[in-house]
Amino acid sequence: MKAGKFKDILITSLIKVCGYSAIIFVGMIFVFLIKEGSPALIRVPLENFLQLRWYPIEDRFGLLPLIGGSLIVTLGAAIFSIPLGIVSAVYIAEVAPRWAREILKPLVEVLGGLPSVMLGFIGILVIVPALRQALNLPTGLTAFTGALILGGMAIPTIVSVAEDALDAVPKTYREAALAMGATRWQTIWKVTLPAAKSGVLTAVMLGVGRAIGETMTVMMVTGNAAVFPTGFGAIFKPVRTMTATIAAEMGEVASGSTHYHVLFLIGIILFLISLTVNLIAASVVFRQRKRTERILS
Amino acid sequence: MNAFNSDLNEPSPVPMEVKPRALNASMEIVLTDPKIIVEHLSISYSDGTESLKDIYLAIPKNAITVLFGPAGGGKSTLLRTINRLNDLADVVKVQGHVWLDGVDILSPEIDVIKLRRKVGIVFARPVVLPLTIRQNLTYGLELAGQKDRTIHADAVERSLKAAAIWDEVKDRLDEPAVSLSGGQQQRICLARSLVLEPEVILLDEPTSGLDPISTGKVEASLQTLKENYTIVLVPHSVQQAARVADYAAFFLGGELIEYTIGKQIFTNPLDSRTEDYVEGRFG
Questions:
Q1: Is the Cβ pair A175, B85 closer than 8 Å?
Q2: pLDDT category, B32, cuts 50, 70, 90?
Q3: What ipTM was assigned to the predicted interfaces of this complex?
Q4: Could you give the CA distance from residue B176 to residue A136 in angstroms, rounded to a whole number?
Q5: Which domains does chain B have, with CATH numbers?
Q6: Do the chains contact at B129 and A176, CB–CB below 8 Å?
Q7: Nearest CB to A181 within list B130, B176, B196
Q8: How far is CA B130 from the centre of its chain?
Q9: Residues A123 and A114: beta-carbon distance below 8 Å
Q10: Cα–Cα distance, A75 to A109 (Å, whole number)
Q11: Residue B4: which pLDDT band, with cuts at 50, 70 and 90?
Q12: Which CATH fold would you assign to the domain A46-296?
């Protein structure tokens, strides 16, 4: 009896240590980022960050081309992957016959586990030359290529999570709609999708979040030219993202130099962007949950 | 022929006089011009279980026909076959016919959407949509392409009155339907199926989650509704079956054991299994 009690306490405290350490690690990473990134704000005047040139050797630290590059690639990936991902999820959850569903769902999940280097590889060998020839561009290493491949990476995440959400909608909702004479399309569009809204939104956020933070593929296929994207044609020109900049330059920079601190500052900005995306998603889901709880109580 | 079967070029011929099965020939009931005829219907699910075995049943107009028996007897399967909701289930084999006004509704050419507007269903657990009371009712009309607000208002009032809930909700039509009690929600669901002016109403244990007062209200509204509709009910208890049945069919293990006039089956059943079930010896 006593030994059992001891075991109980031991296991509980072990679990507690694991739980707290996760929080502590995240906190420590954040502290480290701030510590290494904040000197950049002191050493470099603010207007230096707001210029359009990123030439660290000449002490020109314009962050706008990098932020612009990340935004255009992520936005492109989102525009391409969100509709495709949601429609695929609807197909798998609502339309596909059982045997097709049983093949498609695991296949999509395997696709989500592909290493990003492999996708970059396919991008360089297949998409880049194809795009250059098709559109007669000077180079196929463009923002569009990056968006295409990032979108392809986000789709499995979106499909998988959104399909789970659609699948969790009670069968009775569908039956009630069908019994009222709704067509399958009306049932999906007006009943099932709205009922699974918060789950679908989570899927989109996870997918887009993956696209923002992705480094390897974008470094391989976007050309890495730190040019501020202007106009519509910019999607067919090379860009450089924040993540690719950190990955490419961190290995060569002198520790403690201004350039080094600026790279950490970029890391802080990335962190803040993904934090904002997550907070928006959480607040939307939370607000919706609260409303349903209020109605149901 | 009405709009519903105008899609079909030639309605198949149907016997106009059907003798539902009973064990003793002298106890057979004869229906002329039944609304629904279930003819040699067998249904199997993909896991190998046979849910219905060669069912033959004629359901009359303007009456409450009760399908009762222990769980797993195939009552719900039969009910859901009548408006083809069973298409969603994992059915592998369907044999036989279900005739509605002389049209075989199991035929692949049938317009299932039109059929479901003609054959309404109310489920065991009230499923109100997360909308207001009024929107819950007008939703089916909107799906059918009806946009006229005055027609909406008339239909809402008519169907809420028919479902015996008008007085309770007439002043709060724009409140969320989920704020109503379970019994009220169930009558909203009944009203919702009435909005589309169906000809047949199917009810799958509509009062299983309700208190006796709400159950009484639902049963009372069914008694009024049967003057204009064909009602098929799977009751949640034998007692309810006995209270409301004009005709009653006893199902056991996918077979139709006995089908006759309600009073007959609950007071003097022919089959010993029916008698055992009605008197509560099993089930």
A1: yes
A2: low
A3: 0.71
A4: 58
A5: 4-278 (3.40.50.300)
A6: yes
A7: B196
A8: 24
A9: no
A10: 23
A11: very low
A12: MetI-like fold (1.10.3720)
